[in-house]
């Protein structure tokens, strides 16, 4: 479908961290977006599966995205179900027919993020092979990678100056992850993570000549016509 985005993450909140502002921006411009989580993040230090599912739905509602899809594979066990996950992702791609597909950047301190990136890349390729699986072949026009952790140099950036507030309002839905309570375990996520993330968005924006931006990587050469 033209003007549709599918963004895949290993866990609820991955997509919102990396490209929540981009999703909100393009939805405001008439695109539709669907988020896909490979796991329910059941091994998270804080928050229950039920809490995280509610947080994810609320975040999608704020961004204007469709209700998220959870494939419910095992947290930290993605590569044990490699072929099943690729097949599931191919069916989602063929059914939803997004114009653009997004995955986490493959270099990340969390192994699940890198594994998710690899699986989405495989599904992106296989979805265009008619004899793979069942259903009519369809491959999105582009696959891009959003950044979760780290400060790698992006290949391009999206101006989110008008949607940055909506991004961080959506991220605030994940209170189990980003807020400390008397019962919570200290993690990198609840120790100034959102402040650091916003600084990254601000720095990326400054380098691009705008107030806030999100950076993306591309494996294919991007053509720009002046």
TrEMBL record:
Signal peptide per UniProt: none
GO MF annotation terms: deacetylase activity; hydrolase activity, acting on carbon-nitrogen (but not peptide) bonds, in linear amides
Q: Cross-referenced SUPFAM superfamilies, in alphabetical order?
A: LmbE-like (SSF102588)
Q: Which InterPro entries match?
A: Bacillithiol_biosynth_BshB1, GlcNAc_PI_deacetylase-related, LmbE-like_dom_sf
One Pfam family assigned to this protein is PIG-L
Q: Which chain positions lie within coiled-coil regions?
A: none
Q: GO annotations under biological process?
A: bacillithiol biosynthetic process
What cofactors does this protein use?
Answer: Zn(2+)
Domain of life assignment: Bacteria
NCBIfam families (alphabetical): thiol_BshB1
Protein's recorded name:
Bacillithiol biosynthesis deacetylase BshB1
